[in-house]
Every structure is written in structure tokens, then in C-alpha cells.
């Protein structure tokens, strides 16, 4: 179907309920339903035309709006230039000229049925629980790893938030998505996505890679506390009222009051929430923190127990979640007797097997 054909032959979808005609086709894909629609783009859940069809997402940028079309091309260019296990992959891109939908620039992306990080946060709020410490540390590491890959290519994501962190069954394979607002470091543009997780300077039309680091910190604060707050606005207001340090201490207390999360992770969050961009850590500096040594060892193949240095690691310290011990009772007893995690020095009250 192309623009200019007799559109009376094609039934109009009921956009109020996001229902498409049965077996409606877009290129090589069958539309299941519309998931979201915003002023810049639409996202459709589709299936491939295979004997064993797989779900994919089709992101459509309307070509009649030049800014949106350029945003789609920019997202395509950003994803194509990135090669990291923690960045969403692109299946393909194509142009669509459809009698019902209109003219779009389209990007086909993998579908992540486990949802996003915002789903995790909201589920914990509903159950009145907190994200387990081990999960929180893993999320923090692999998001930082993906963000470092973005910054290594001189790209600024500009829209980092929980809903743009997509999850699979393994936290190692979470991915950063939605590069529609991404910029190269040297680029100047008024096209920014102002949201609760964006930095103070971004609200003034200024941004750089520290902008993403601020958003990363806001994301982690929401993950550890379940609170949905505009930290840039609160910290700016506190500074104007000479109450910034009091608020910073309050934010720290929000994360540490239940003694679930280790101080290293809390210190990381606080270091990213500095109003001056130059005072925030770079992503590579974040990855080099001792906080993440266990995950780096897993990737490097350093899998021996940190005490006996012979047997493979099977057990993690509680509550910090660092997997550093083997199953030998002697090693476990030594760790419990010491009372501190060998990595982060947080008080340890138990050791559990990690499958």
C-alpha cells in the first residue's frame, strides 16, 4: 500500500482503542497492537512472518514532521554506531508509505517481554518492598557499562530514565533504549526531552555527557527508594535557600535508613547528583569502583573464591550481594566471623548460594 491509493479499500483503525484490522501488515511484519503513541513517535507490537513468529517492536516517526523524521534518523544512526551488549540492537529500518497510517521512517527493534526498570520500581512500590541489594548493584553496573559505551562514541543519550532501560531474564543483558533525543558531543540543538530525570543544565538548554550521569544518578535513587521526585528542581531550590547540604543528607538517609544497600552504592548515587556538571564522575570512573569488582571479575573469568583462591565462587554476602565465596564451610565461616564483605566492607549477616 502506498500513498495515493484508494484509501476506501482499507478500513480505518480505531485509534481510540489502538486496534488495527486483523492481520494488518507493515512491510514484513504483522501488527498485533499499538503500545504507545506520543507527539514524536508511535510504537507497535508486531510479529514476524515466520513459521515460528517472534515479537518485535516497530517504532514509527512521522515523515510529515521534519523534526520527528530527523529524530528517527538520529536514533537509527546512534544505534547503528554502538556495539555493546547493553545497548538495544536494531533489526532493520525502512520507510513506510501506508494508506492508513501515512508516511513514516521506521525502526524495527527487539521486544523485551520482561518490561523495563520502571516496571521493577512500580512492582516494588505495589508490594511495599525494595529492590534487592544484589539486583540493584547489578542494574547499576550494567547500565553504567551501556552508558560508557554510548559516551565512548561521543554520544549523549539525553533521555536516560527507568522506562528506557529494558530488561531480560538476565540483568547482564539489560539494554539502554530510545536514542531519539541523542546528540553527538559537538552538536547544538533545542530538541531536548525535559523530564524529571534530566539535569539542571539541560533545563537551560546546555548538555554534555555529565547530563547523562545526572540522569543515571536520579534513576538509581528511584530504584533504591521507589520515590518519584524531581531531584534537579529540589536541589536547585534547596541551594537558593541555603539548604542544599541538608537536602543531600536527607537524600542519603532515604537510601540508607533500612540498611539494605551498601555505602558504596549510596556514595555513587550522591556523587552523580552534583549541580555542577564538572563535579560528576565519568562513566569509566564509575565502572572502576570497587563496588563493581565482582561483576568485572565474572566478566574477566576471575571466578575463584576470594578466601581460598581455589574453588569457584558460589555464595554471595548478604545484604550487599557480592558473590565472593565458595561453598566450603570454612570459607563461609571465616567471612561470617570477620563480619564484613571482603569487597565493600558492609556488615555481613549471612551468605547464600547464587545459582
Number of strands: 13
Percent range of helical residues: 25-40%
Radius of gyration: 23 Å
SSE pattern = EEEEHEEHHEEEEHHHHHHEEHE
What ranges have pLDDT less than 50 throughout 5 or more consecutive residues?
Answer: 1-17
How large a portion of the residues is in β-strands, by DSSP E?
15-25%
Assembly type of the shown chains? single chain
The best one-word shape is: globular
Based on helices, strands and strand pairing, what is the structural class? alpha+beta
CATH class category name of the largest domain: Mainly Alpha
Count of helical stretches: 10
CATH architecture of the largest domain: Orthogonal Bundle
Strand order of the largest sheet: 1-2-3-4-6-5
Cα separation of the termini: 51 Å
Mean pLDDT: 86
Domain module tally: 3
> How is the main sheet built?
6 strands, antiparallel
The CATH topology label of the largest domain is Transferase(Phosphotransferase), domain 1
At the fourth CATH level, what is the homologous superfamily of the largest domain?
Transferase(Phosphotransferase) domain 1
Question: Keywords for this structure?
Answer:
10 helices, single chain, alpha+beta, Phosphorylase Kinase, domain 1, six-stranded antiparallel β-sheet, 355 residues, disordered N terminus, 3 domains, three-stranded antiparallel β-sheet, Herpes Virus-1, Transferase(Phosphotransferase), domain 1
Amino acid at each position: 500500500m502506498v500513498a495515493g491509493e484508494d484509501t476506501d479499500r482499507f478500513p480505518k483503525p480505531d485509534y481510540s482503542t489502538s486496534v488495527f484490522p486483523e492481520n494488518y501488515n507493515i512491510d514484513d511484519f504483522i501488527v498485533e497492537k499499538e503500545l504507545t503513541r506520543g507527539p514524536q513517535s508511535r510504537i507497535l507490537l508486531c510479529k514476524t512472518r515466520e513459521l515460528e513468529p517472534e515479537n518485535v517492536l516497530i517504532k514509527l516517526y512521522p515523515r510529515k514532521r521534519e523534526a520527528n523524521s530527523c529524530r528517527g534518523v538520529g536514533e537509527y544512526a546512534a544505534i547503528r554506531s554502538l556495539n555493546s551488549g547493553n545497548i538495544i540492537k536494531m533489526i532493520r529500518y525502512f520507510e513506510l508509505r501506508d494508506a492508513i497510517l501515512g508516511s513514516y521512517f521506521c525502526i524495527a527493534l527487539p521486544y523485551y517481554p520482561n518490561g523495563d526498570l520502571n516496571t521493577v520500581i512500580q512492582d516494588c512500590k505495589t508490594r511495599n518492598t525494595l529492590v534487592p541489594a544484589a539486583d540493584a548493584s547489578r542494574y547499576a553496573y550494567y547500565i553504567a557499562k551501556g552508558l560508557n559505551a554510548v559516551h565512548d562514541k561521543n554520544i549523549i543519550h539525553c533521555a536516560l530514565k527507568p522506562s528506557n532501560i529494558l530488561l531480560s531474564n538476565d540483568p547482564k543483558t539489560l539494554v539502554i533504549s530510545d536514542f531519539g533525543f541523542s546528540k553527538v558531543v559537538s552538536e547544538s540543538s533545542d530538541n531536548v526531552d525535559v523530564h524529571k530525570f534530566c539535569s539542571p543544565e539541560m533545563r537551560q538548554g546546555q548538555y554534555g555527557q555529565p547530563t547523562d550521569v545526572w540522569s543515571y544518578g536520579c534513576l538509581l535513587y528511584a530504584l533504591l527508594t521507589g520515590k518519584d521526585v524531581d531531584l534537579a528542581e529540589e536541589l536547585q531550590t534547596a541551594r537558593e535557600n541555603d539548604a542544599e547540604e541538608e537536602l543531600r543528607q536527607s537524600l542519603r538517609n532515604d537510601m540508607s535508613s533500612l540498611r539494605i544497600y551498601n555505602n558504596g552504592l549510596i556514595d555513587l548515587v550522591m556523587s552523580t547528583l552534583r549541580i555542577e556538571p564538572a563535579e560528576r564522575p565519568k562513566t569509566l570512573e564509575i565502572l572502576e569502583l570497587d563496588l563493581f569488582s565482582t561483576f568485572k571479575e565474572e566478566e574477566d573469568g576471575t571466578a575463584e573464591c576470594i578466601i581460598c583462591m581455589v574453588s569457584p565462587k558460589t555464595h554471595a554476602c548478604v545484604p550487599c550481594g557480592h558473590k565472593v565465596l565458595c561453598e566450603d564451610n570454612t570459607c563461609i565461616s571465616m567471612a561470617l566471623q570477620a563480619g564484613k564483605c571482603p569487597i565493600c566492607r558492609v556488615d555481613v549477616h549471612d551468605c547464600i548460594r547464587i545459582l
